[in-house]
């Protein structure tokens, strides 16, 4: 009996450590205590693994220069207030530049590859997911071609999201002179201390003057033509001018903390001269014409490559249909788990709190904290129209189950919720008062706020907001409204499972 008492005392001390350590985050403290209670001793070790016992030590990425511009008085009061409230969180304050909205993968890849082909000095890429499929091969071969032409190319991938990217391709890139690094790679000692941190950014900066960011990674599924995935709805943006320097600063900061890639000892893989690949809508690469040394996938890729692309109405009816470039005021924000302030969460909260007319949110993973929920409900109470667009089917299932637990109180407060039913919804954006647009890589969840490196752009432009609003309306046409009756029809077991998933939300 004495040893049982001893184990009880030790486990109680562990629970006290959890409570003290997470005193500023009650939700996270609760899940930690539950784990310790259900799995004595072992639960504490699991908690330590999930919450990173070795914290990152980094400074917030802010400018040392005082070159921030001011938003003209011609903007709405809410725009002026939001821009002023966010200026101390932005990388370089408020900047003027040009913005182009890119809707879905084919449009994004074509525009991106066209810009990469024109690069003269440098190409910097940072992706959470970078695949070795048809799109990835086109991108890799193009980077190798530009590196061979004397352009400095730096490539950063996330250790978890791009864990399947083969060493053979890394070797090809490095042989061509591309500098390659990995954020939080799955190898010792990184995996022992930082494995739950993730670099979720999607950034490309070309010659320091042109930048791309948003929700689109590098992979065939983002084209919307991958058979076992189906239609893919996403949003990216292209930025030129001074704001591109801000994304360059974000990339440089992430580059400095990433680990250099390692290659197989003795491996000598030379890049082949395959010319400059171009991703075109009406042509697919035959398997025998694929560049590189790795054979094509025998599954869906072979089937996809053997048939000409038929971009019928189903494929293209949600493409933006515009190549317009608009002048805009832009603020860049970096979500950084190494600082105590959750920057992206504060950006969302500020935008929601100061809206006076309308809020349209599109996000695939909606598992917010209590403050964000309260900001949304408070906006409705101020007579602000709030519409939330989320996927009807969410992967992983546990995230969708946790999301459903928020819908009841939001519907009751007056939020209009729509479930996207056409395919995969992966776009991450907000439109505020018809003048402000937020586009980036971050989801509405605690992982994005506190554990991921994220990046987002807040764009002040009625033209850009209008383009995104028009796309939002097209997305609503492919969605079904969620009613309170739909939630009430769920069985008691389903509700219990949803609540259990929400309990795990701080660690999802």
Automatic annotation (TrEMBL):
<feature type="transmembrane region" description="Helical">
    <location>
        <begin position="6"/>
        <end position="23"/>
    </location>
</feature>
<dbReference type="Pfam" id="PF13091">
    <property type="entry name" value="PLDc_2"/>
</dbReference>
<feature type="transmembrane region" description="Helical">
    <location>
        <begin position="30"/>
        <end position="48"/>
    </location>
</feature>
<keyword id="KW-0812">Transmembrane</keyword>
<dbReference type="InterPro" id="IPR001736">
    <property type="entry name" value="PLipase_D/transphosphatidylase"/>
</dbReference>
<keyword id="KW-1133">Transmembrane helix</keyword>
<keyword id="KW-0472">Membrane</keyword>
<feature type="domain" description="PLD phosphodiesterase">
    <location>
        <begin position="421"/>
        <end position="448"/>
    </location>
</feature>
<dbReference type="InterPro" id="IPR025202">
    <property type="entry name" value="PLD-like_dom"/>
</dbReference>
<protein>
    <submittedName>
        <fullName>Phospholipase D-like domain-containing protein</fullName>
    </submittedName>
</protein>
<feature type="domain" description="PLD phosphodiesterase">
    <location>
        <begin position="195"/>
        <end position="222"/>
    </location>
</feature>
């Amino acid at each position: 009996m004495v040893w049982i008492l001893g184990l009880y005392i030790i486990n109680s001390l562990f629970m006290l450590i959890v409570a003290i350590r997470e005193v500023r985050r009650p939700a996270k403290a609760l899940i930690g205590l539950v784990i310790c209670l259900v799995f004595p001793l072992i639960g504490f070790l699991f908690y330590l693994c999930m919450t990173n016992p070795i914290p990152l030590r980094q400074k917030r990425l802010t400018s040392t220069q005082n070159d921030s511009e001011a938003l003209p008085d011609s903007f709405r009061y809410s725009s002026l207030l939001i821009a002023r409230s966010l200026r101390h969180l932005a990388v370089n304050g408020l900047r003027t530049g040009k913005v182009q909205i890119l809707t879905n993968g084919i449009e994004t890849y074509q525009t991106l590859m066209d810009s990469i082909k024109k690069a003269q000095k440098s190409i910097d890429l940072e992706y959470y997911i970078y695949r070795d499929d048809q799109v990835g091969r086109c991108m890799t071969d193009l980077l190798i071609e530009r590196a061979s032409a004397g352009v400095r190319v730096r490539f950063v991938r996330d250790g978890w999201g791009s864990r399947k990217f083969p060493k053979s391709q890394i070797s090809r890139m490095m042989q061509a002179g591309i500098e390659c690094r990995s954020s939080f790679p799955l190898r010792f000692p990184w995996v022992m201390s930082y494995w739950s941190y993730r670099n979720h950014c999607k950034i490309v900066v070309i010659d320091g003057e042109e930048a791309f960011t948003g929700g689109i990674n590098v992979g065939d599924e983002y084209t919307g033509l991958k058979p076992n995935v189906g239609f893919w709805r996403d949003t990216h943006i292209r930025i030129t001018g001074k704001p591109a320097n801000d994304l360059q600063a974000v990339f440089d900061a992430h580059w400095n903390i990433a680990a250099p890639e390692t290659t197989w000892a003795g491996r000598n893989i030379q890049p082949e001269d395959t010319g400059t690949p171009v991703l075109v809508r009406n042509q697919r690469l035959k398997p025998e014409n694929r560049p590189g040394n790795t054979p094509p996938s025998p599954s869906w890729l072979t089937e996809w490559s053997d048939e000409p692309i038929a971009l019928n109405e189903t494929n293209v009816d949600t493409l933006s249909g515009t190549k317009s470039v608009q002048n805009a005021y832009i603020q860049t924000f970096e979500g950084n788990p190494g600082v105590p302030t959750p920057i992206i969460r504060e950006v969302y909260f500020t935008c929601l709190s100061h809206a006076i007319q309308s809020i349209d949110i599109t996000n695939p993973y909606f598992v917010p904290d209590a403050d964000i929920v309260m900001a949304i409900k408070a906006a409705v109470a101020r007579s602000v129209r709030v519409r939330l667009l989320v996927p009807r089917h969410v992967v992983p299932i546990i995230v969708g189950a946790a999301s459903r637990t928020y819908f009841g109180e939001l519907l009751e407060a007056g939020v209009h919720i729509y479930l996207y039913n056409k395919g995969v919804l992966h776009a991450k954006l907000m439109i505020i008062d018809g003048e402000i647009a937020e586009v980036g890589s971050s989801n509405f969840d605690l992982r994005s706020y506190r554990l991921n490196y994220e990046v987002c752009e807040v764009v002040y432009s009625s033209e850009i907001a209008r383009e995104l609003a028009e796309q939002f309306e097209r997305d609503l046409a492919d969605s079904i409204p969620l009613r309170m009756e739909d939630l009430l029809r769920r069985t008691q077991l389903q509700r219990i499972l949803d609540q259990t998933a929400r309990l795990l939300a701080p660690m999802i």
